């Protein structure tokens, strides 16, 4: 896989993955195409706001984690990333893994957000799918050729949130599942060790 493509995927994963911490629950309303489009546009606006804040990197990473939880369905993403081991994990382990996962994703991708300065994301199309909406967009970064990013948006959590992304056809959540699975294998399947290490990684 070409390094420039990897870099673009890593960056955009930041731009979306770094965005999901918690807001107060809203009344359940059926997801609409407009709502799904607005979610993607809001993600971009919030990233730009944090970048323009002039805060330290540590402070911006905390803000990115809050955004990650606000806009992404973190529990669903974390469970998928853990794979089959999520079924045997205790409730406490899943809670701790989810917390570690959101911090890991925010740190891993948040440090690349400065590449978004001057960037542009244009929503090109939206279509209904079984689990919500598929929002296709075109991303233009300075010094880089435009590339396609697809957001999958659902309201299963009770709020409109994205639960996966495809960057030039590459499934971001599947990529993280592969990486986290390898990390767990290196720890001989010890989930508690993975949680402890994931809390510091990224």
Can you walk through the features of this model?
With about 200 residues, the chain is α+β, with helices and mostly antiparallel strands. It has a single domain (about 5-200), classed as Nuclear Transport Factor 2, Chain: A (Roll), CATH 3.10.450.710. The chain has helices at about 5-15, 35-50, 55-70, 75-80, 85-90, 90-110, 170-185, 190-200, and strands at about 120-130, 130-140, 145-155, 160-165, 170. A 5-stranded antiparallel beta sheet has the order 1-2-3-4-5. It is globular, with a radius of gyration of 16 Å.
Short description:
The protein is α+β, with helices and mostly antiparallel strands and 202 residues long. 52% of the residues lie in helices and 18% in strands.
Describe the protein's topology.
Blueprint: H1 3-17, H2 33-51, H3 57-71, H4 74-82, H5 85-88, H6 91-110, E1 120-129, E2 132-140, E3 147-154, E4 161-167, E5 170-171, H7 172-186, H8 191-198
Antiparallel strand pairs: 1-2, 2-3, 3-4, 4-5
Helix pairs in contact: 1-6, 2-3, 3-6, 4-6, 4-7, 6-8
Question: SSE order, as H and E?
Answer: HHHHHHEEEEEHH
Beta-strand fraction estimate: 15-25%
Judging by the overall fold, what is the CATH architecture? Roll
Structural class per helix/strand content? alpha+beta
CATH class: Alpha Beta
Please name the defining characteristics of this protein.
single chain; about 200 residues; alpha+beta; Nuclear Transport Factor 2, Chain: A; 5-stranded antiparallel beta sheet; 8 helices; about 50% helix; about 20% strand; globular
